């Protein structure tokens, strides 16, 4: 991630200095996290960590998973087309159809038959 993009996103979150975390303890910090869903821990005014609530973490994981599934993967599209064509072999009469096709004489008429384009 770019540093400017990161700082803009972090600047919008609630902050807590590490010294405040030591004073408040875990319960105090978790109260802050439960209100906002996320909290940036700073050390000498520099962001060091982000504490997330479980619902916020789940939300981010769902977004990441959705984004991963949305990417156009040409290899996945090829797999899906292949699987769709291959699934025709699972038809109840697939063996009979293939046998009938193989028993027919090839009528090439001087042309080569290949793939779905013939």
What does this structure look like?
- The protein has a domain at 3-68: YefM-like fold (3-Layer(aba) Sandwich).
- Helix content is 58%, strand content 14%.
- The protein is built from five helices and three strands.
- Strand 2 and strand 3 (46-52) form a beta hairpin.
- The two termini are 49 Å apart.
- Residues 1-5 have low confidence and may be disordered.
In CATH, the topology of the domain at 3-68 is named: YefM-like fold
- Which structural class matches the secondary elements? alpha+beta
State which percent range the strand residues make up: 5-15%
CATH superfamily of the domain at 3-68: YefM-like domain
CATH architecture level-2 label of the domain at 3-68: 3-Layer(aba) Sandwich
The Cα radius of gyration reads 30 Å
What form results from the Cα inertia axes?
A: rod-shaped
Report the CATH C-level class of the domain at 3-68. Answer: Alpha Beta
* Topology pattern, helix = H, strand = E: HEHEEHHH
Low-confidence stretches: 1-5
Q: Average pLDDT across residues?
A: 83
For the biggest β-sheet, the strand order reads 1-2-3
Counting DSSP E segments of at least 2 residues, the number of strands comes to 3
Major sheet attributes: 3 strands, mixed
Per DSSP, the total helix count is: 5
Helix coverage percent: 55-70%
Taking the alpha carbons of the first and last residues, their distance comes to: 49 Å
């Amino acid at each position: 991630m770019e540093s400017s993009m990161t700082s803009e996103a972090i600047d919008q979150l609630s902050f807590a200095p590490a010294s405040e975390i030591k004073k408040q303890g875990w319960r105090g910090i978790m109260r802050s996290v439960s209100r906002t869903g996320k909290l940036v821990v700073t050390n000498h005014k520099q962001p060091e960590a982000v504490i997330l609530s479980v619902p916020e973490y789940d939300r981010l994981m769902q977004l990441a998973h959705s984004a991963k599934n949305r990417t156009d993967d040409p290899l996945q599209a090829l797999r899906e087309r292949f699987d769709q064509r291959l699934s025709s072999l699972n038809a109840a009469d697939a063996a009979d159809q293939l046998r009938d096709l193989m028993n027919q004489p090839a009528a090439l008429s001087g042309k080569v038959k290949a793939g779905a384009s013939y």
